[in-house]
């Protein structure tokens, strides 16, 4: 007769957490962040809802794990870049690409503070490139935060514009009419840029401004 084995207490193994996180990212891509619930995730994984809280006590914990998973590989984006400024650009662009790779990726990432190797590795690589560019420690950290916040905010706007069901064409037409019929001469002169869709070009311009002194 086999002796009774006591149940292991504590959180489930890391591999199971990774499986749940991957399932959450698939649901995110299918339906978006607003539709991602613990109940739907439990069904997708094949467990009871209560079991999920053993992996992630709160939904914020789940989002943090998802954000960490999205940044996989970002820290290595600057390999091969010769100059510090080039490495900064490569890292920022890798973050943008990572957030764009999942529906509502920027919304998931915003406000999280993951402590895993993907998130901290990206921050370390970005700070290292900025230090090599000549910035002292506090300036490098502040500039790194500015770049990360700029990238996150840019992708938030980008994804909100192109998400399924977006009313963008109607909204742009209304914006153009408001400018045309109002007293906004500077906006009228540049409205093609104001209502344009060149997100990559606008992102590059922002990076140039943020790194102009490097």
From TrEMBL:
InterPro entries, per this entry? Answer: DNA-bd_HTH_TetR-type_CS, Homeodomain-like_sf, HTH-type_TetR-like_transc_reg, HTH_TetR, Repressor_TetR_C, Tet_transcr_reg_TetR, Tet_transcr_reg_TetR-rel_C_sf
* The entry's keywords: DNA-binding, Repressor, Transcription, Transcription regulation
GO terms of biological process kind: negative regulation of DNA-templated transcription; response to antibiotic
Q: Which residues bind DNA?
A: 37-56
Gene Ontology molecular function, alphabetical: DNA-binding transcription factor activity; transcription cis-regulatory region binding
Q: Which residues cross the membrane?
A: none
Residues annotated as domain HTH tetR-type: 14-74
Identify the PANTHER family for this entry. Answer: HTH-TYPE TRANSCRIPTIONAL REGULATOR RUTR (PTHR30055), TRANSCRIPTIONAL REGULATORY PROTEIN (PTHR30055:SF151)
Q: What is this protein called?
A: TetR/AcrR family tetracycline transcriptional repressor
This protein's species is: Amycolatopsis umgeniensis
